[in-house]
Each structure stands twice: as C-alpha cells, then as structure tokens.
Amino acid sequence: MPSLGELLAPRRMGRDFRWLLASSWTSNVGDGIALAAAPLLIASMTSSPILVAAGAILQFLPWLLFGLHAGAIADRFDRRRLVMTANAARAIVLAALCVFLTTGTANIWIVLAVAFLYGTAEVFVDTAGSTLLPMLVTPADLGVGNARLQAGYLVANQFAGPPLGAFLFAAGSAWPFLVEIVCVLLAVVLISRMATTPLPPREEHAPVHTDIAEGLRWLWRNPPVRMLVIIILAFNVTWAAPWGVLVLYATEHLHMGAIGYGALTTASALGGILATMTFGWLERHVSFATLMRVVLTLEVLMHLAFALTSTGWLALVIMFFFGAYAFVWGTISTTVRQRLVPAELQGRVASVNMVGVFGGMVIGQALGGVIAQTWGLTAPWWFAFAGAALTLALVWKPISQIVSARPAGERESDEAQSNEP
C-alpha cells in the first residue's frame, strides 16, 4: 500500500513539487485564519454593509490596478524569488497591523488601508505562484498537481484556518494576525528550498506595457482560453455579491454568531475534501465538459437555496455541497488553462485570469453591499441566482470548445506537417 506521502505527492512528480506543496499549504493556513478574522475585525468596528464589503473590495482591488503588471513581471524574472519577496512584504504589512491593534490605535480606516496593501502584495504572490506548477511537472500530471494544491487550500484555508481564526480573534484581535505572520514566513522558507528550471533568456526587455499587450493579444486570439476567462469573470460577479456580506448574513440573518460564520467555510472545506477523494475517479470516467456544466448548474442552485433558507443547519449543508463542486471547478479550469498556455506566457495569461477572478469579486461585492443595504441580506443571493442562471445559458455550448481545444504549439506543429509536400 502506498504511503501517505506518496498519495499526497507522488514521487514521480519530484522533490521540488513537494516543497511547492508544503509552502502552499502552510501559507494557506495563515490565509484561512485571516479569512475569518479579517471580516470579524471589520464587523467589530462597523455595522455598515458597505464598509464591511469594502474590506474585501480593498483587498482585491489591487488586481485591477497591478494584476497585469504582475503577470508581465512574473514572465521576466525568477518566479520563485518573486513569490518569496512578495510574501515577505505581506508579513511586514501584517506586523504593522498588529502594532496598531496592540497599541489600541487601530480604526476602520487603518484596517481598510492594511487590506489594500496586503492585497497588493498578494497579487504578486498568486500570479507568480500560479506559474510554478507547469514548470515542475508534466502536462499529464497537471490535474493531479492542481488537485493536491486545491486540497491544501481546502484543508488549510477553508477547513482548519477559519475556525482557528475565529477562536484566536475571540482571544484577542491581534492574535490571528500574529499567527498568520508565522505561517507566511514559514512558507517563504519552504519555497526557498525549491529549484525551478529558468525560462529561456530574453535578449532585451521591452517596456512592461508591451509585454502586457503581447499577452492580451495572445489571449484574444485564443478563443477557448478567452471564453474560459469570461466565464470566470461572470460567475465571480454573481458569486461575490452575497459573499461580500456573508459575515452579516450568517450573524444577523441566520443568527449563527462568529463561530457559526467560521463553520460555514469549514463546511465548504469538508465538501471539498470529499471531492478531493473522488477527483481521480471523476477525471478518468467523466469528461471535463460534463463536469464543468454540472458544477456551474449547482452554482445556480446554491444561490437559490441560500436565498430561501433561514436556518443555520441548512446553510451548513448547502455550503458542504458548494465546497465539493467548487473544488472540481477550480481544479478543472486551472488545468485546462495551464495546458493551453505556452510557458513563456503563463504569468501574463494567469494574471488576466486572476484579474477576471478578483475584478469580478470587486464588482460583485460592491453590488452586494449596495443591494443588501437597500433590499436586505437575502437580496444579493437572488441577484446571484438570476445572474448565474443567465450566464450558464449563454456559455453552455462553448464549454465543449474550451475542453476540446489543443495547445497552440501542437496546433502549429500539425499545421506545419500538413503543409509539407
């Protein structure tokens, strides 16, 4: 019987993949702590849905400002060192927040500023980090590698981190962020042990905006990847509208309290862990196109269920199934994109994808805050249900084209062979 280590990180994927996995999982513990602690800190300072939503918006707004530049930089320089440097910057920002909290000088505006600075550093961590896996494993192992990284995200970020963050926040507002600093710094040490094959050297560095334009042109001329980015943008707008005020929905509408709010993300992680155990079977027996349609349909139904429920235990059940299908979607969409994008463009295309993710979240959370302020805490769920249903109807057919597409290099090779006399 294979050992636990072999099941989690097969030996064929190499030692460096294990260092990447360990660093990612460790960092996700800290991020999971903040996932519960940061909204609770903001909610303790204000009851305004707009300001609560602003906390998440200012953390993700940097993607709109710096995301494309981060992609161009990741394609120019050592991606591993970029992750290390940006994580160190995150630790410094968190340390400043802890000083404000322990001295009693923190206020809502300082916390919102910290969210923005932390989010700016995270742009470079996530963009460069998303390019490392294709540099370490073969295309055939990308599905397994992404599943393992997603599993760490679910266990650490969604399952273990949030309840720990809520518990630490109850002990003292600075404690969760102090623990997060330790996790982020340990992640830097772990990824420093990893070696990556450098990209082919470039003869000269064009202006950053030229590199960005090159990536955007490639994406626009590649319909499958372009459509995938559009789907992600649309569904993140609808998903984020209620998520931005989830802490108020859980504590005021469902009356679950701070611990109950953390339990919602824990339930999501449990569902994702179940999907982790079955993903290998799903990948072998069900087409990616079918899986993508199923999970997006479940997304529509989840919004409707949350709009209708008023009981905490039912919300936990719904969140469990959300975690299961969200894991499958995240793994498949990332794997498909990585297989279709050339190595030298991974950073720029990943950054456009992440701008779609977080840009959609900024737009959605802004809408969610206004909708909740105007029509109540269940109104964002109704908005999400209608928007997701419409989007699914429009993208149902193009999903097949996305999954059946082949990498650009393979298509060019086939075309060259077909043109030979």
Label this structure with key terms.
single chain; 421 residues; globular
Give your account of this protein's structure.
This protein is mainly alpha-helical. 82% of the residues lie in helices and 0% in strands. The protein is built from 19 helices and no strands. The chain has helices spanning 4-8, 15-45, 49-60, 62-74, 79-102, 108-129, 133-136, 142-171, 175-192, 208-220, 223-243, 246-253, 257-285, 288-308, 312-340, 346-375, 379-395, 398-404, 408-418. The protein is globular and about 50 Å long. Mean pLDDT is 84; it is low at 411-421.
In summary, what is this structure?
The protein has 421 residues and is mainly alpha-helical. The protein is 82% helix and 0% strand.
Q: How is this fold's topology laid out?
A:
Elements: H1 4-8, H2 15-45, H3 49-60, H4 62-74, H5 79-102, H6 108-129, H7 133-136, H8 142-171, H9 175-192, H10 208-220, H11 223-243, H12 246-253, H13 257-285, H14 288-308, H15 312-340, H16 346-375, H17 379-395, H18 398-404, H19 408-418
